[in-house]
Amino acid sequence: MINNADKGEELAFERARRNDLLSSALCWLGAFFLSIFGLKSYFSGLPDYGIGLLVFGLCTALIWVQFKLTQNWRVFQSMICLGFSVLYLFLLSSGGQANTGLLWCYTYPLIVFSLLGTRLGGILVAVVLFLSVIILYVPGLDFVTHSYTPDIKYRFTGSILFVVALGYLMELSRMEAQRKSDQANEVLKMMAHRDELTGLYNRRGIKESHELERYLSKAPTNEMALAVCDVDFFKNINDEYGHDVGDEVLKLVAAHLKASIRETDLIGRWGGEEFIILFPSTSLEEGYQLIERVRKVMSEKRFEVAGHQIRLSFSTGISSTRYYDSWDNLIKSADKHLYKAKEAGRNCTRTTEHS
Ligand SMILES: Nc1nc2c(ncn2[C@@H]2O[C@H](COP(=O)(O)OP(=O)(O)OP(=O)(O)O)[C@@H](O)[C@H]2O)c(=O)[nH]1
Predict the structure, then answer these.
(1) 290, 321 in Cβ contact below 8 A?
(2) For residue 355, what is the DSSP state?
(3) Angle value at C-alpha 227, between 226 and 230, nearest 5 degrees
(4) Catalytically annotated residue among 213, 273, 285, 343
(5) Catalytic annotation on 274?
């Protein structure tokens, strides 16, 4: 089972990877172009404008350094989007070198949507568009040093609105595609780690579970017992009642085993009619007592499936980290003791200390 904590960790990892790529690409490209054009303006007789661009370039590089040091994506998003909003308004009100400032304004909505998403990005872009209308259409403003012809104003207003709508829709469909791909990945991971019939972990699920990793890492000081339980003569159930009834019996056995153990114990279907249970913080003796109690209850129970009252018995082998420190050896030992339980006539449990 992929639990919520695991899912959260994976999603956070994916997001961090995307953020890292996006921040580096944005900042380095931004700093590069701002510096090139800043220097060009500075040496072409527009020193103030050039210095302005160089300062923006430097700020972009510093924001990137700040993000690398703190990994605080929220602060990075806010600083880049606010900085870029100021740059956009600066280009619009100054006209840029040789009146080319407007050309760069078209990149603004795309960057804001990709960093802030449609909701927050939409709010910021709407505010900046409102300020653009003031800059373009309110005459006599001190900070507006460039005046555009009516034709340029109308065409720019129309085309920037078009780019905003396009950027919004593209981000919307990217977010939708991301959501679907996250969902599909989740389903695939579930399928890869879960046993379809019983809903328990399958073999891979157990081996790759975070719980197992955690329990094994604590095992040197915190003994863990491992039990492999096998339904005796399960073939007879299939032969007598049919495979479908066999399936239902396996589901009931899985549910009963799960209900009989603690929340922290880990259970999975190891294959066929074989189940595996991990008991963390449990000695071999305690594991033996636990599994014997469950085994006895199960052997007295009648499993009711399709009108049949079916009785079962179980054989179990147990091993513990007191004797084996690797996963493979733990399993091998539990399997060996399961085999001994079968040899001893079934319906019993065998361990290193109970042969
Ligand atoms: N219905 C059903 N049967 C299964 C499933 N997986 C394995 N089996 C059956 O479980 C039976 C296991 O048979 P055996 O390995 O001979 O073991 P057993 O009959 O339980 O005998 P012992 O283990 O020696 O006590 C086989 O008949 C498999 O077909 C399953 O998912 N559903």
Answers:
(1) no
(2) -
(3) 155
(4) 273
(5) no
Q: Which residues pair with 226 in a beta bridge?
A: 278, 319
In angstroms, the Cα distances linking 336 to 226, 269, 331 are 12, 18, 8
pLDDT in tens, 282-302: 999 999 999 999 999 999 999
Question: Is the distance from the beta carbon of residue 231 to the nearest atom of ligand 1 less than 6 Å?
Answer: yes
Each residue's pLDDT tens digit, 125-142: 999 999 999 999 999 898
**Of 77, 39, 34, 40, whose CA–CA distance to 59 is shortest?**
34
State pTM to two decimals.
0.65
> Distance from the CA of 264 to the center of ligand 1, in angstroms?
28
* 3-state helix vs strand vs coil in the chain, percent to 5: 70, 10, 20
What domains appear along the chain, each with residue ranges and CATH number? Answer: 4-189 (no CATH), 203-351 (3.30.70.270)
Q: Is 342 in the pocket of ligand 1 (CB under 6 A)?
A: yes
